[in-house]
Amino acid sequence: MKHIHVCLISEQTIPNILGIFYFKPEEVLFITTEQMLKREKTEAIVNTLKRLGLNIPFFEIVVREDSIYDCHRKIAQWMEKHEEDNFTVNLTCGTKIMSIATYEIFKDYGSKMIYIPIPKNEFFEVYPLKKLSEPQPLPLRLGVIEYLTAYSLRVINEAKLNRYKEESEKRKALTNWIVTNYNSIEGLLSEFYKVLQKSRNVSSFDLTIEFPISNELQRDFLKAAGFNISGRTISKKLSRSEIRYLTGGWLEEYVFNSLNSIKGRGIDDVVMNVEIENIQGNKNEFDVMFTKDNALYFVECKSLSPEDDITKSSLYKIGALQKEFGLRAQSFFVTTSPHIIKDGQIRQSVRARAEQFKTEIIKPDEIVNFETIIRKKLKIMEE
Question: N or C: which end of the chain has fewer CB within 10 A?
């Protein structure tokens, strides 16, 4: 006699992952459809479970999602060989027809059936019937890569993510200094961007520029970053990492460090510069992604005062990424651009675009308080 957990397959995969991880059955039965087969939803669930250390044998039944007769017939036929087994059933996903058919069949076996109210991390026992069913907590919290895997997305550069984190932590003091003193060194950073923007993918770059240092903070920054200074001449051999840092990567690292500082204390996981690919082969890169309570968030960063049209294109990119990659994610747009502000407020056109894509804008004067803002937005208590 085996414990078999039954799942109904639809676009949402995470409720099934949470249920399987909670019950840890000996086998799993997936009731799916032709459409979900094409979208590789079962594979996404299985691959995510493997990343979580569960390699559970599974069965798969393909039904017509609009035919209760077809659902009944195929499930009943499968059950003929498993009548002696014990079942738990997750009714959260699938179509209403699939849920009704599954409920009717497994009710006759006295099986425990649950429902997970999305996006809560808890389940209710809907059968056997009780006068009052208290919600049971689901303790699993997915990291970023597990979440992406659950949506059939592959992280192309997973092996590099830890290096990005280490580099960011090494530069944390300098990064914080840049954010605090940004207005005084903006001209210098803009000059670096002009010279280096087309060399972001080279392995190294021998930089030599003429620049009139106008204040001591600019000189302090150059010394802290290891530049050679001779009069107006500034020089250094830059690595690829340093090139990216000077051309805007510092803002991405600031956001990452802010979130990483509350990892395990409100944020479950955070990664930066993550490159993903969907099953159609489309690729893209996200500046910063993080998870909290099995929800995904991402942050798009734009520094060096991009023009208004670039700001709008960044917001369009957020919308396109949400649609193209099927990610139900809340997003934040962090920018140093003054062009998004009019009379001290975010321009109406920019605000409307951000609301369209469910994006929260972090204004230039708010960046230094990014961690506090995130805590407030996501209701993370101060310790």
Answer: C
Query: Is the peptide bond preceding residue 117 cis, with omega within 30 degrees of 0?
Result: no
Level-2 CATH architecture, domain 155-164+247-377: 3-Layer(aba) Sandwich (3.40)
> 43: Cβ–Cβ under 8 A, 6 or more apart, which residues?
152
pTM over 0.70: yes
Where does 249-307 have alpha helices with state H? 250-260
Q: Classify 191 as helix, strand or coil.
A: helix
- Residue ranges matching CATH 3.40.1350.10 in the chain: 155-164+247-377
Residue 67 · residue 97 · CB < 8 Å: yes
Neighbours of 169 (CB within 10 A): 14
The number of residues making up the chain comes to 383
